């Protein structure tokens, strides 16, 4: 849900329900690293409500586009983490029986 | 980083030239290391702003290909119950997201509803039900669906266990352990009370669950029968003449709702410690340093002419107790640091799902969250 101005698309606040620090901090990290972003932060209005407000202010691009790109980047990072992890586990499992045999 | 660095102050104009695109060593130290002093750690935040080093020509923005090239995972230990691995090249916010998802948002099966027919033991009903809920159950949660309030319990969303023990009068006291919990693959045995006379007297009486087929006819479940993970957890103790008869229904849930549904007993990470000797530590001081450290990070190295020198042998074991920098002047000799993007992750599973599967599922859940945000935005 986007709370922004109709005339100025460069800055708006996105209110996500059913989210907490888990996703918000990770998205804030990827957003901050984007060179188009002037300001980015998140807040949790009340700990009992599962709601997160993410504020994005950019240098010219619409804020929702920048947020979408940041989420895409985060997804690509996760996929890379997953593939690297699977490979590392397979390598470890294959190297272990060799060690057992050597001993 | 070298083992020994100079600590004299040099004017900024006299520092050696650094090629464009690289940061001078003191700034690189600030960017990549947390310095742990005697009182508190400094430089703990990761420098996120993409233009932070723009004046030096260094681009601090997130470049995905740089991430993909430098990211590494090294598995140190992998058993059925726990694993320890290193994640190198990732930011703490994402490592923390994985940790939070592992603890709270991975689904598992745990006992939720307990139908008590008879409980004459000294353990109260609610205490018994609470203890049953905390027992880890060896069932793959991916084979089951979530059950909402309007659903009827069926073989796709419920696991039924039965516990019926009694202690004979005149016999010794009995300890009820988890191996007394028997899995009922065909559903509940307790009959629902109905006021009306059943229209068809030969039809099967209605029980608390409506299983259309027996759970052990499913191929995944017939190979690994469902049961409690450990057979020796004490549930209750019975004196002579006491009896417990109950049925327990296990459903799928997440750690967010109640800790019994958390698939890990715990999951944590720590940053890789780096112990650096700023000056040479020789002879008597070296012996003192080696003795100070409770986890034996330092070692003595013999150099020529009978002199001894201290070296850092096992920095990974450092627990940051700061014993080596306590006392006067030791801060000049030893610098304790943490590498900001190197995390030593440890996952201890309760046993229902192996730890490497847990981590893969946690990463998938973070991806699903991102996708949900993207679809909401477009």
Short description:
Chain A is α+β, with helices and mostly antiparallel strands and about 100 residues long. Chain A is built from two helices and four strands, in the order ββαββα.
General description of the model:
The complex is a heterodimer of chains A (103) and B (378). Chain A has helices spanning 21-32, 63-102, and strands spanning 2-4, 11-17, 37-43, 51-58. Chain A contains two helices and four strands, in the order ββαββα. Chain A is elongated, with a radius of gyration of 20 Å. Chain A has a four-stranded antiparallel β-sheet, with helices on one face. Chain A is an alpha+beta fold. In chain B, the strands form four sheets. In chain B, strands 1, 2, 3, 4, 11 and 14 form a six-stranded antiparallel β-sheet that branches. In chain B, strands 5-10-6-8 form a four-stranded antiparallel β-sheet, covered by helices on one side. Chain B has a two-stranded antiparallel sheet with strand order 7-9. In chain B, strand 1 and strand 2 (41-42) form a beta hairpin. The model of chain B is unreliable at 1-6 (pLDDT under 50). The chains are: A alpha+beta (103), B alpha+beta (378). The interface between A and B is large, with 44 and 44 residues.
Helix/strand layout:
The complex is a heterodimer of chains A (103) and B (378).
Chain A: E1 2-4, E2 11-17, H1 21-32, E3 37-43, E4 51-58, H2 63-102
Helix pairs in contact in A: 1-2
Chain B: H1 25-32, E1 33-36, E2 41-42, H2 64-70, E3 72-78, E4 82-88, H3 92-104, E5 107-119, H4 125-133, E6 159-166, E7 174-177, E8 182-183, H5 219-223, E9 234-238, E10 243-254, E11 264-277, H6 283-292, E12 298-302, E13 308-312, E14 334-349, H7 355-377
Question: Which descriptors apply to this entry?
Answer:
heterodimer, A: 103 residues, alpha+beta, four-stranded antiparallel beta sheet, 4 strands, 50% helix, elongated, B: 378 residues, six-stranded antiparallel beta sheet, 7 helices, 14 strands, disordered N terminus
């Amino acid at each position: 849900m986007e709370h922004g101005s109709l005339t100025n698309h460069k800055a708006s606040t996105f209110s996500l329900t059913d989210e907490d620090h888990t996703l918000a901090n990770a998205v804030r990290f990827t957003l901050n690293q984007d060179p188009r972003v002037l300001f980015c932060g998140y807040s949790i209005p009340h700990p009992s409500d599962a709601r997160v407000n993410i504020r994005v202010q950019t240098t010219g691009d619409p804020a929702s586009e920048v947020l979408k790109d940041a989420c895409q980047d985060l997804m690509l990072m996760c996929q890379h983490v997953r593939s690297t992890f699977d490979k590392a586990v397979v390598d470890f499992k294959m190297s272990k029986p060799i060690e057992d045999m050597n001993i | 980083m070298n083992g020994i660095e100079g600590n004299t102050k040099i004017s900024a104009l006299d520092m050696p030239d650094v090629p464009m695109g690289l940061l001078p060593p003191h700034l690189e130290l600030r960017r990549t290391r947390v310095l742990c002093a005697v009182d508190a750690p400094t430089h703990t935040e990761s420098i996120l702003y993409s233009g932070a080093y723009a004046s030096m020509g260094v681009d601090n923005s997130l470049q995905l290909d740089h991430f993909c090239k430098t990211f590494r995972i090294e598995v140190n230990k992998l058993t059925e119950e726990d694993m320890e691995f290193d994640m190198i090249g990732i930011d703490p916010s994402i490592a923390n997201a994985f940790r939070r998802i592992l603890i709270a948002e991975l689904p598992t099966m745990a006992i939720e509803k307990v139908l008590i027919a008879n409980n004459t033991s000294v353990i109260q009903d609610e205490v018994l039900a609470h203890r049953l809920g905390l027992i880890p159950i060896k069932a793959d949660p991916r084979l089951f669906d979530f059950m909402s309030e309007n659903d009827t319990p069926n073989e796709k969303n419920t696991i039924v266990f039965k516990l019926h023990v009694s202690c004979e009068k005149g016999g010794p006291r009995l300890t009820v352990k988890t191996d007394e919990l028997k899995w009922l693959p065909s559903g509940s045995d307790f009959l629902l009370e109905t006021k009306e006379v059943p229209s068809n007297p030969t039809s099967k009486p209605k029980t608390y669950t409506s299983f259309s087929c027996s759970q052990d006819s499913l191929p995944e479940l017939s190979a690994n029968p469902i049961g409690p993970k450990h057979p020796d957890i004490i549930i209750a103790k019975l004196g002579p003449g006491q009896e417990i008869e109950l049925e327990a229904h296990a459903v799928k849930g997440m750690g967010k709702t109640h800790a019994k549904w958390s698939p890990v007993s715990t999951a944590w990470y720590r940053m890789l410690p780096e112990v650096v000797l700023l000056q040479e530590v020789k002879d008597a001081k070296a012996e003192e340093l080696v003795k100070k450290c409770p986890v034996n990070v330092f070692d003595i190295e013999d150099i020529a002419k009978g002199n001894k020198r201290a070296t850092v042998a096992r920095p990974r074991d450092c627990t940051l107790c700061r014993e080596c920098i306590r006392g006067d002047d030791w801060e000049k000799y030893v610098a304790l640091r943490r590498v900001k993007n190197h995390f030593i992750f440890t996952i201890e599973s309760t046993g229902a799902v192996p730890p490497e599967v847990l981590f893969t599922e946690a990463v998938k859940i973070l991806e699903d969250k991102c996708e949900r945000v993207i679809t909401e935005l477009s």
